[in-house]
Amino acid sequence: MSPTGNPAPDAHGQEPAASPAHEPGADEQERIRTAVAGHARRRAWREAETAISAVLADPEVQRLRALIEQEETRAGRELRAEFQAFQDRYESAVRTGDTAVLAQVCAGKHGRWGRICVQSTGHETRTPHWGITPHGEPVAWIGSAPDDD
């Protein structure tokens, strides 16, 4: 090293060549891009989960959720006499493997219980969705959860 901190010339008086910066190859660049994208995606999920948890923990949101669940259960019980035949038809089709009947069942999806509407496709303009929860309770609801499964 010279007194200035630069590399000393070699025996022939030549300055040493600067070493080229390491440039990653295409495979390594792709690996880096994938790692960065994965990190960004995980961070976004953490931030979203934190925000969603904060909203769901709000006492007013919890009160409204309980009120909605009570109303869905009340409406389900109230409509049971009218819609039980759809449940019976659905259960029979499942037992016998009647795909023609099963293909006509509403694809409506309850946010908590999933695909439990037993009415025929297209009923939504006339009646709410209706089905039986895994706990055997009737439930009626309006709208459908996102089809993300």
Q: Can you put this structure into words, describing what you see?
A:
The chain has three helices and two strands; from the N terminus they run αααββ. 12% of the residues are buried. The chain starts with 25 loop residues before the first helix and ends in an 8-residue tail after the last strand. It is mainly α. The protein has helices at residues 26-57, 59-96, 99-103; strands at residues 129-132, 138-141. Strands 1-2 form a two-stranded antiparallel ribbon. The model has no long low-confidence stretch (mean pLDDT 86). Helices cover 50% and strands 5% of the residues.
Short description:
By secondary structure, the chain is mainly alpha-helical.
Task: Summarize the SSE layout with pairings.
Layout: H1 26-57, H2 59-96, H3 99-103, E1 129-132, E2 138-141
Antiparallel strand pairs: 1-2
SS-based structural class? mainly alpha
In angstroms, what separates the terminal alpha carbons? 65 Å
Low-confidence region ranges: none
Strand order of the largest sheet: 1-2
Number of helices: 3
Q: SSE string, helix = H, strand = E?
A: HHHEE
What is the general shape? elongated
DSSP E strands, number:
2
The biggest beta sheet is recorded as: 2 strands, antiparallel
Average pLDDT confidence is 86
Please give the share of residues in helix: 40-55%
C-alpha Rg (nearest Å) = 31 Å
Strand content: 5-15%
